[in-house]
Amino acid sequence: MGYAGLMFGILAVISVIGLIARIVGGAGQIATAAKEIKTSKDSAEIRCAELERQKKLDEAEAERQRKLDEEQAEIRRKRAEADERIRERQERHRLELEAERAKDEAVSVNTECKMCGAALSGHRRERVRCPYCDFEQTL
Ligand SMILES: [Zn+2]
């Protein structure tokens, strides 16, 4: 083998080493890229799980709020009913009192003062003051 052959051989070895280095480097880059892909896939999965969890929490919160609203609506409805019953009872009572007063006013009473015996007149259950002795009584 001559000088040129030796040089050629050296060059060939250097080329092969370079090629191997590039292959190894490429493999390293591929491995790094694969690792990056896996990392981003993992973080995407984590984000996905986080979103899923958040969605469930939001749904539970919405459900809780809906129940609360329903309960409050029920309470308002019951209170309105109770108010209505009270109003009806008060109105009935007022009408009864009016009817009773009308009945009393229709009945005239002639009597005597319990204190001095003077003649007194008015309607039933009326409070009157005797004009002579100032004694107050119910007819
Ligand atoms: Zn009197």
Protein model, in words:
The protein starts with a helix and ends with a strand. With 139 residues, it is mainly alpha-helical. The model has no long low-confidence stretch (mean pLDDT 94). It is rod-shaped. Helix content is 75%, strand content 12%. It is built from 1 helix and 4 strands, in the order αββββ. A two-stranded antiparallel ribbon has the order 1-2. It has a domain at 108-139.
Overall number of strands: 4
Radius of gyration: 53 Å
Q: Overall pLDDT, averaged? A: 94
The gross shape turns out to be rod-shaped
**Bound heterogens, unique:** zinc ion
Runs with pLDDT <50, length 5+?
none
- Provide the β-strand percentage band: 5-15%
Task: Give the N-to-C terminal Cα separation.
Answer: 155 Å
What's the oligomerization state? single chain
Count of runs of 4 or more consecutive helical residues: 1
Lateral strand order in the biggest sheet:
1-2
Overall structural class, as computed from helix and strand content, comes to mainly alpha
Order of helices and strands: HEEEE
Largest sheet: 2 strands, antiparallel
Helix content range = over 70%
Main features:
single chain, binds zinc ion, two-stranded antiparallel sheet, 12% strand, mainly alpha, 139 residues
Write the layout of secondary structure elements.
Layout: H1 3-106, E1 108-112, E2 119-123, E3 127-129, E4 136-138
Antiparallel strand pairs: 1-2, 3-4
The structure holds zinc ion.
